[in-house]
Specification:
The structure holds two protein chains of two kinds. Chain A is about 35% helix and about 25% strand. Chain A is built from six helices and six strands. Chain A has a four-stranded antiparallel β-sheet with strand order 4-5-3-6, with helices on one face. In chain A, helix 3 packs across helix 4. The radius of gyration of chain A is 20 Å and the shape is elongated. By secondary structure, chain B is of the alpha+beta class. Chain B folds into two domains: about 5-70, Orthogonal Bundle (Arc Repressor Mutant, subunit A); about 80-155, Lrp/AsnC effector binding domain/regulation of amino acid metabolism (RAM) domain (Alpha-Beta Plaits), CATH 3.30.70. In chain B, about 35% of the residues lie in helices and about 20% in strands. Chain B contains six helices and six strands; from the N terminus they run ααααββαββαββ. Chain B has helices spanning about 5-10, 25-35, 45-50, 55-70, 100-110, 135-150, and strands at about 70-80, 85-95, 115-120, 125-130, 155, 160-165. Chain B has a four-stranded antiparallel β-sheet with strand order 3-4-2-5, with helices on one face. The longest helix of chain B has 13 residues, at about 55-70. The N and C termini of chain B lie close together (about 10 Å). The chains are: A alpha+beta, B alpha+beta. The interface between A and B is large, with 97 and 95 residues. Strand 1 of chain A pairs antiparallel with strand 6 of chain B.
């Protein structure tokens, strides 16, 4: 097992303010049209496992295969589909320690810190989220996957050392919440 | 890995989604290939198979077997609901141990709950809500509170710094 090394491939995704994404969605991305919505409904459980999956889907939806493939390509282009493919159970492929590290970062520095931490090779997700004071002071979430708990903790310590070195005083507290099991993992399901 | 995924992935005291086995070497190559761009061609499995030196039927059979054994949790398009006018939101609850099973069942029964993880913290249940409209998040949270009798904390993403969609097997 090796960690992903492809951080450079998606710089454009960094630091997209979610409010802007939401308003962008409202202003510029038309709601799903009837066929796109039916494509989402027909594929949210997965693609048919047959030699010609797009032909099978097209038949089910009453459109032609070319149209279906063009619609999927368009949804990929617009980002409505992040990608088509497999989602592994991360435990099964060796990432048995899944630590959600959470950090209380000075609001004045949070975006600079978030960009820096998100760019680390071993951080798989990195978000700014609201605090829930008084008992939840953390505003930065950085997911760390590793093959063991010690390895995950060593990476969290590495983040802490980096913060101390590059953003002295910005971090006021931290915690790591290890996963003790997946209870559900189906992905989104919209209603019919 | 030395640790058995079946136990490592098992939800302690919950009904987890543990894998039934470890993927073999060919499965791992396939998992890595399938986390790239799946072809939008007439015969995508044949194309993936050709690139890996396998045959089409074997690729399809292996994907089916990995889904059955929960080595894969899904295979298909991954939708970004925020780009379709909807919303995702991370949420957490502090669930008393005595109510763990019933609460897990109640929360998982909501179609808006896309993922749910047990974590070692006072806030021990962390799940992701996905709804077709942004206002659906608060509504789903209220309904989960009503169904479980427990408060739901919402952690909407304010900014996304990085998301990796791929884990090498």
């Amino acid at each position: 097992m090796t960690m992903p090394k492809s951080k450079a491939r998606s710089p454009a995704r960094a630091a997209i303010p979610s409010v802007a994404v939401a308003s962008d969605a409202a202003a510029h991305v038309a709601p799903l049209d009837e066929l796109d919505r039916r494509i989402v409904l027909a594929t949210q459980d997965g693609l048919p496992l047959v030699a010609r999956p797009y032909a099978a889907l097209a038949e089910q939806l009453g459109c032609d295969e070319e149209t279906l493939r063009a619609r999927l390509a368009r949804m990929l282009e617009s980002g409505r589909i992040r990608r088509i493919g497999a989602v592994p159970n991360h435990y099964a492929i060796g990432y048995t320690a899944n630590g959600m590290s959470v950090w209380d970062i000075d609001d004045a520095l949070i975006d600079a810190v978030g960009e820096r931490i998100g760019a680390l090779e071993f951080v798989t997700h990195c978000y700014r989220r609201p605090r829930h004071l008084p008992d939840w002071p953390y505003n930065l979430f950085a997911m760390v996957h590793a093959a063991s708990r010690d390895a995950a903790l060593a990476r969290v310590a590495e983040i802490a050392a980096l913060l101390e070195r590059e953003f002295r005083g910005a971090c006021r507290g931290r915690d790591v919440l290890f996963s003790a099991g997946i209870l559900k993992k189906t992905g989104l399901r919209i209603g019919g | 890995m030395s640790e058995r995924p079946a136990s490592a992935g098992g939800a302690r005291g919950g009904r987890g989604v543990a894998a039934a086995r470890e993927p073999d070497a060919v499965d791992r190559r396939l998992i890595n290939a399938l986390q790239g761009e799946f072809p939008l061609t007439a015969t995508p499995f044949a194309d993936v198979a050709a690139a890996l030196g396998l045959d089409e039927a074997e690729v399809i059979d292996r994907i089916r077997a990995m889904l059955d054994d929960r080595v894969l949790t899904r295979f298909g398009p991954m939708f970004q609901i925020e780009r379709m006018g909807g919303a995702f939101c991370l949420a957490a609850m502090a669930v008393p141990e005595a109510q763990w099973e019933a609460t897990t069942e109640a929360v998982n029964a909501f179609s808006e709950v896309a993922h749910n993880y047990r974590r070692e913290h006072r806030l021990n249940m962390w799940f992701v809500l996905a709804t077709e409209r942004p206002e659906g998040i608060a509504d789903a949270a209220r309904r989960i509170e009503a169904a479980t009798g427990l408060p739901v904390r919402l952690f909407p993403k304010e900014r996304e710094y990085f998301v990796e969609m791929k884990l090498e097997a």
